[in-house]
Amino acid sequence: MACSNCFNGCTEIVSDQCVKYTGIDVPVLGIKKGDSLSYVEQALITFLTSTLDGTGIKITIPETTVICNLVQKYLPTCEDLTAVNLFNALIQAACELQTELDATNDRIDVIESPYLPGCFTTFTESSNTHTVVQEIITKVCGIESDLSALAIDLSTNYVKLSDLCTLIIECINQNTPADSGKYYTKMVPYTAVEYYGDINVFDSSGKGFEGTPWEKIYLCNGQNPGVPDKRGRVGVGVTFGTGMDAAVAPGGLNPTYNLFTKAGTNSVTLSRPQIPSHTHTATVTINDPGHQHNYETRITNNRAQFSSDEREVTTYAMSTLQTQSSVTGLKGTGVGQNVFVTNAEEGGGLPHANNQPAIACYYIMYIP
Predict the structure, then answer these.
(1) How far apart are CA 48 and CA 44, in angstroms?
(2) DSSP label at 323?
């Protein structure tokens, strides 16, 4: 059976969908006249739920209210302030205050712990801090007029400045370790160090003489076990392992550096494939001492008939006989043409220096 006042043409009796809300608009709940009952119910449920958990309660604090920094640092800065935010800030601020108070009490307990009077006579173990501090002030102020109150024997506890250096040297000499004065005590083991001094402190193998400050120190000449040969070479990091930068990882022109691996040379000679692509200027010379051409000569002979008296020509136009002939041949000396093309020669095939700017020094290493 259909209802008579259905909402939006509803044909089934479902009250919350068929019944319209006819009350006033409630903007805070998002409800307005004409909404379905189901929408109004949902808006009320949502509001009540947010009110119960505090997220729906918006808090407006007057601008005249000053919030202390302790609470302010726990409040949100970019969103609406809710009851949950405010309660959380107050709780955290209170906990922080409690922590500070506990620490203060601990410090006060230490300060107010029993005192040992010692040479002081005006307070006891149970005296408060003010009494103790005041007694100390009084005692210190009386020092200038009564040095004997300090009960200090200056001849035993103090020395003259002029005697201080002598006493320090005597103290050091009495506590000198067995390897004192040996340079290796100031060096990191197995580390090559630049050295610009005299090498007469080393024997022919590069080992520091025993019994001298140079014992256990070696020249890095590769002549003693565990000591690298650094003569004419610079160090480079070992490249074993993975995860290296592609620019230095082994492969192609990059060598694999294991410990003590040697690589590189002082000079390099480029081969033809290593020379950059380039061009040369060509010089052309034509040598033409002489040449010949084909030719054709055509000769025409005209002969006229004269009268009986050969001394007089009657006419040139009568009975003219014409003959033609052609002659072909060569003219000139038959010498060929020579063309010379010359490319200027470049390069001498010599090696080039492969040295970086450097300064020479000895390398030494401490081997325990």
Answers:
(1) 6
(2) E
